[in-house]
Design a protein that fits this description.
Helices cover about 80% and strands about 0% of the residues. The chain is mainly alpha-helical and about 130 residues long. The chain has one domain: Methane Monooxygenase Hydroxylase, Chain G, domain 1.
């Protein structure tokens, strides 16, 4: 942007001097001014081309970053989704109320762990079938 701001006024001034019918500008100088004008225009075109290239590179970089972020978010979402029901089951059995018959049952702990395992496995299977994991 700074290069464009520097070259643009130069191009304008050289164009004015080239076209002007000033008696102090010799004909051979006009040839050099025409050449300078062409170089200034070419420099502006190169600057614009590089500017577009830089914009495209930035867009590709941001798209790659967004894709990586989406992959990380996908993994974190699956992990969180797996642990929410497990946390619910664990919190229910961690309340220590007296009226919970599973607490005195001999198979209560293995059944709770089995329910957690079946829930997690079922959700993983569901995620794989949907193509989310």
């Amino acid at each position: 942007l700074a290069l464009r701001r520097a070259v643009w006024p130069l191009r304008e001034e050289v164009a004015i001097l080239q076209r002007a019918d000033a008696p102090f500008v010799a004909e051979e100088t006009r040839v050099f001014l025409r050449d300078s004008y062409d170089h200034a225009v070419q420099a502006l075109e190169v600057i614009e081309s590089l500017r577009e290239t830089l914009t495209n590179v930035m867009e590709v970089h941001l798209a790659a970053q967004n894709q990586r972020l989406n992959a990380v978010m996908k993994v974190l979402t699956v992990i969180a989704t797996l642990f929410i029901p497990l946390t619910f089951i664990a919190s229910i059995y961690g309340m220590n109320f007296e009226g919970m018959p599973e607490l005195r049952w001999r198979w209560g702990y293995p059944v709770a762990l089995g329910a957690m395992a079946v829930t997690a496995a079922g959700m993983l299977l569901y995620f794989r079938r949907r193509g989310w994991w």
